[in-house]
Amino acid sequence: MMNFITTPLIVGIVFAGIYGLSELFLRRKERMAIIEKLSDKQGMSSLEDKLHLSAYSPCFSFSSLKIGCLLSGLGLGMLVGFIMNTLFVLNGTDDWYRNEMAGTAYGASVLLFGGIGLIVAFVIELKMGKK
After folding, report:
1. Interaxial angle between packed helices 95-130 and 63-87, expressed in degrees from 0 to 180 and rounded to the nearest 10
2. Which residues cross the membrane (predicted)?
3. Is the pLDDT score of 47 beyond 60?
């Protein structure tokens, strides 16, 4: 049924992959050329003095906190969507109406509580950053 779209789609994916790989290697060559020009003009010791690489302390990543808060928010959203589904949607008479309202309840709850979870992770990250 959808055979007319597969050929252009595959050709597009192949060309996008080839373009992406060639762009990746060309950028690498350009970056290496810029680094060589910088090293020719200045010594590496003066470059290290300008960057002060040893002065930077390692940064903590809060990705696990973000993922944890997001997943807990999604789980809470699924629970609230289920509760809303059982309380409000099951009383509808039309089968199509029940399916639409159940999908809306689940989707809205998951997105709302997932966003709240990310906001909580951001607030926790700000409080830990101040310490």
Report:
1. 150
2. 6-26, 67-90, 102-124
3. no
Q: How do residues 64-117 score in pLDDT, each as one tens digit?
A: 888 888 888 888 888 888 888 778 766 656 777 777 777 888 888 888 888 888
Distance CA 129, CA 131 (A): 6
With H, G, I as helix, E, B as strand and everything else as coil, classify residue 94: coil
Residue of 44, 79, 62 whose CA lies nearest to 120: 62
C-alpha span between 112 and 80 (Å, rounded): 10
Q: Which residues contact 68 (CB under 8 A, 6 or more apart)?
A: 121
Domain locations in the chain?
A: 3-55, 63-130
**Residue 72 CB contacts under 8 Å (≥ 6 apart), including other chains:** 117
pTM of the model: 0.48
In contact, 93 and 85? CB cutoff 8 Å: no
